[in-house]
Amino acid sequence: MAGRFFGFALLGVAVVLAGCSGTTGPGEQERPYAAVISIDSDTTLPGMNVHLPVRVAWDESLPDRIDSLASINFVVSYDDSALSFVGTDQGPAISEWEYFTWRTRKSLIRNGTARPLSCIEIQAFRDRGNAQSPRPPQLLPDGALCTLNFVATAHRGRFGTTTEVGFWIGDCLDNTFMDAKDDNIIYMADTLERHDGLWAPYDTGNCPRRYTLRPLLRFVSGAVHFEQPPATLVGDINLNGVAQEIGDAILLTNYFIYGDRVWDADPARRGRQIAASDINGDGELLTRADLEAMVSIITGNHDPGEAFPPPYSDTLVLSVWDQVERVTIRGNANASVSSVSIWVAHDTQDTLHVSKVGLDSTRVEVFTYDHVSRVTLIGTVFRDPRDECILLRQGSSPMRITKAQASTPPGVLMAVHILDIRGSSAP
User: Can you tell me the distance from the alpha carbon of 76 to that of 17, in angstroms, rounded to the nearest whole number?
Assistant: First the structure.
């Protein structure tokens, strides 16, 4: 069961991305581990979808190994300048578990500095006391517990870099399992293993209810590496040797309609296509501003040899009223707004409906894929501060705005600030 986060005690496994600092030798490495919990690593191109399974594997040779689990809990943190989280899937290893849910939040790293971490808390309970237990193979799950789903940033500056997707701890009950037999809590070792093999310490010796040093859980982090695509001609998105032509504009338009599947199946050619999309030279790939800039060049409204104005000089403020049945969005800008793209994470089995108040000359496009819908307003957008874009829920699944982009003519990105006004009505 996937749904909203409810107030259960944090009993289970905790997963957090990036945020461990310092290195040490594994203080409990010499003791046998009951299980290894790991996050897969992956290689991607900017703007692509990334799916990272979280897996558990048990050491069946231990005489005191666990027979069954009652709950699992992850707290996940990640670098939101590199990855946008769009949801998680319940894994096949716990597909029959009765309760599975997640929520997002901001936290502070454990060393006391004020640098915020984007966190994801994930909980799973085998059953809730109603005797509806899963079949025996899932009493002690082995394999994929869940899959973390992200969209990689489309910034050119990420080429050739790696961002960690790893385990982190900020509380005693993070990174723990609960034994179904006696409700004992199974702790992690006093170290976390990063994707590069280094270790970061955490002292669980004084944690309440710590009943034993064994069995220990070993947590191994993953990472996402951004490929460095080959050199390419900017604007030659269809790779025919001619830049800024109608065929290139059509292919870029199709990306906003159909998503990643429009790119070439060959990874090298796909990388060149994506790298060629930075039409306005702002370092951000695959944006509506790039498409607008290309159209300006093709129609003769902008000289292809002339630099575009610098990005983020103008600002759009989006006020978001998040109510039970709908999300209402209004915009206020200091310049003309030609497009606004809003990424909405939700259960994509439910249809997302979009309605408008005002915005009569604005076209709306909705593209849904892998846990997220991209709602794009095109034309003259938010000219009147009372204009509204309304997102209507279908069902009770959570829905949240993960990011937004806006452009101003002739194809320049604007700075976007989101004011999240939860639980109130738009005035």
Answer: 6
| Tokens 């159209």 -> residue | 295
Q: Taking the CA atoms of the chain, what radius of gyration do you get in angstroms? A: 24
Alpha-carbon dihedral of residues 78, 83, 86, 92, nearest 10 degrees? -70
SS3 369: strand
Q: Is 389 exposed, middle or buried (0-12, 13-18, 19+ CB in 10 A)?
A: buried
Backbone angles phi, psi at 325, to 5 degrees: -100, -10
d(CA 260, CA 370): 11
- 275: phi then psi, degrees, rounded to nearest 5: -65, -25
Q: What is the pLDDT of residues 64-119, one digit of tens each?
A: 667 888 888 887 889 999 999 988 999 999 999 999 988 887 765 544 445 567 88
Q: How far apart are CA 136 and CA 133, in angstroms?
A: 9
Kindly state the greatest CA–CA separation across the chain: 76
Q: How far apart are CA 284 and CA 290, in angstroms?
A: 8
pTM across the whole model:
0.77
Could you tell me which residues come within 8 angstroms of residue 12 by beta carbon, excluding any fewer than 6 positions away? 71, 72, 73, 74, 123, 124, 176, 177, 178
Tokens at residue 285, please? 């790939």
Rounded to a whole number of angstroms, the distance between the first and last alpha carbons of the chain is 36
Phi, psi of 252 (to 5 degrees): -65, -40
As beta bridge partners, residue 144 has: 55
- Which residue's structure tokens are 């292919």? 251
Regarding beta strands 42-44 and 222-226, do their DSSP bridges make them parallel or antiparallel, or are they unpaired?
Answer: parallel
Residue 162 backbone zone (phi > 0: left; psi -120 to 50: alpha; other: beta): beta
Which of left, alpha, beta for 226 (phi over 0: left; psi -120 to 50: alpha)?
beta
* Amino acid code (one letter) for 112: G
